[in-house]
Amino acid sequence: MSPSHGPDLDARSRRLLRALIGQYLTDGEPVGSRTLSKSSGLDVSPATIRNIMADLEESGLVASPHTSAGRIPTPRGLRLFVDSLLELRPLTGEDLARLRQQLPPSPASSLDLFNSTSSLLSAMTHFVGLVTVPRHSDFSLRHIDFVPLDGARVLVILVFADNQVQNRVVQLSEPLSASALEQAANYLNSEFAGLRLDDIRARLLSELKKASHELNDLLSNAVELASASFAPQSEIDMVLSGQTNLMGYQELSDLDRLRELFEAFQRKRDLVQLLDVCAKAPGVRLFIGEESGYAALDGCSVVTATYGTEGRVLGTVGVIGPTRMAYDRVIPVVQATAGLLGDALNRVTATL
Predict the structure, then answer these.
(1) Structural domain boundaries in the chain
(2) Rounded to two decimals, what is the model's pTM?
């Protein structure tokens, strides 16, 4: 999380702002000067507190709802709070153990693991849990099989290192016998198992250059099958859990806002683009309100952390909830879950 570029505050103003935001995050109500005089621990009069609050409001850090004399933090105030006033509560060993126990010890595939992680984040925070799903090409190929269909069509069965299985139907230039398909599959499995699809394409191009114009039947068939089988295809890009949790928060109870938010969940496109940005900067990222750049997420905060294997970032995990959230608890939960997901993926892909 990047440092705040907010106004410089003296120690008394920072203490009052921290007390106001802490109170607001707890009960969701505007905070008045009398409440602050008791909760801040400062030995100053309510009039002095009102003056400091007026200065904070002029700086854009707090606002006065028209229905109340109290004040609430603005997104800018929350950003300053998170960046420089918040004290995170690291998860204990017991907390981590509980998180680890709630992930499947032996998932059938990485997709099962992503779905479980999304559900776990939603259950832990009572917000929307989300996990971006890596492309199949991010994982190495474990096995490939070809099954002849009618005419020149072939069913391709791709098994990846994360135990995901993808079936594709491809159209060849001419029919191949079951024997030719079996030979091509044996060749590809023996030469390329354990490599990612991008690496396989590069190796095949190298093989073609070496073979020059005289391709033997096996290599020719393997090249055509591989080219058709490994062509990019649309894939699941993100899994979400707990969308209906947001209906229970008063801040998001406006029906038009909820409708826009749920439409964004349905489309996913904008969310995936936002999370792709997060994946390019390893670590924890936080967007408060309009900081995300997407109108549907105004009034929401997005907390994400990157996960991966073997030093490679594969995606992001995170939560979407109201801006009034317990950041000191949510951020460590998201960060720890990202680490546990990476560990679990390492175990899934450990054997070829």
Answers:
(1) 11-85, 93-133+236-348, 137-229
(2) 0.80
